[in-house]
Amino acid sequence: MLRSIEQFIFRNLTPLSIRWLPAPEIARASGLAAEVYRQLDREFMSVPPITLHHLNPRLMAGVWSACRESLVAGPDRAMKELIAVAVSQANRCPYCVQAHTSMLLGADDRPALDALEAGGRTNDALANFAAWASATGRKASFSAGRLPFTKRQAPAFMATVVLFHYINRMVNIFLDETMMPVVGKVPVVGDQAFRIFSRVTSGRIVRISAEPGVFLTESPAMKLPEAFGWAADDPAVAGGLLRFADVVRTAADASVDVEVQALVKRQVSAWEGEPPGLGKGWLDAAVSELPERLRPQARLALLSALASWAVDSGEIELCRRAGLDDRALLDTAAWGAFLAAERIAGWVGRQPVIVRKDSKDFRDGKDERGRRA
Questions:
Q1: What would the DSSP string read from start to end of 201-235?
Q2: Nearest CA to 65 among 317, 243, 327, 304?
Q3: pLDDT tens digits, 210-256
Q4: Range of the domain at 320
Q5: Which of 242, 304, 341, 373 could cross-link with 165 by S-S, CB 3.0 to 4.6 Å?
Q6: Which residue intervals define the domain Carboxymuconolactone decarboxylase-like in the entry (predicted)?
Q7: Tell me, what DSSP letter sits at residue 360?
């Protein structure tokens, strides 16, 4: 009964938060899309940050592969949820902050929640861990020091960082600010619904055990991108990122003009995480060398990479007038968001990991008081 209610919520209510793209018709899906939904239902839930990609089933499968192998499968789930919240806070993504705070509440991980509230203002190991995750979007934050976890944990933790730098951008563009678009409009009711949802549904989801490396698609021919080289020691995580990179690049080749690709790649390759200037003067200047017909798509891709919160109905309308359909909007935004995440992956991966004399992982599955998390 409870699972039926959960499925109704995720299949019928949460998609109401999707904007500018049609909502998925999950019950009518077939082929690869249906396979993705089935695996989502077993191991997570058919959540809009994944299902908003449904217009491109291969893209949706690739995003889910990266999510599954970094966040969902394997150990340290509460730690990865802590990363998700910390990165989402830094990226100004209220939807993801709410969703993954709910997961931490469902896991009943009070030390992790306390670490978020501390915000790096203490020397507590978990607070420092959260502060590290929050700072990953700025290259300057990685000029010195070691990663606050061990070599074994590094691939999944860093992949979770990369995933949420991508997901936050897509959510900022295509979803409302709350994962509860109906009840969330009534504060008292919304707060009560959130607590119940966290305790019951999120508590169940966060405890699901998923076997690493169960992919829905074959491994692509391309090599693991250099920026993700740190994932090579974990075949499942590397496989998820490889599939993610492959489908995004395929989407770009199908939907993004080659001149737009060249300009946006050049701009993002020089970016070091700093926010762009106030207003959109920087954006006007950045696309000025392109023919006018290509500028709307370049604007969307650059905003998706560098300032996703600034995508508004005006930008979407410009793209529509330039001839971009729903699939092209999705592919363009996904490609821009991925470029930023890949750029961040490059500088995060250059930081050395800690080496513990006792060979135990950071936290070792316990909170700072020695209790099992």
A1: IIHHHTT----TT--SSPPPSSPPPGGGGGGTTSH
A2: 243
A3: 999 999 999 999 999 999 999 999 999 999 999 999 999 999 999 99
A4: 255-348
A5: 341
A6: 64-107
A7: P
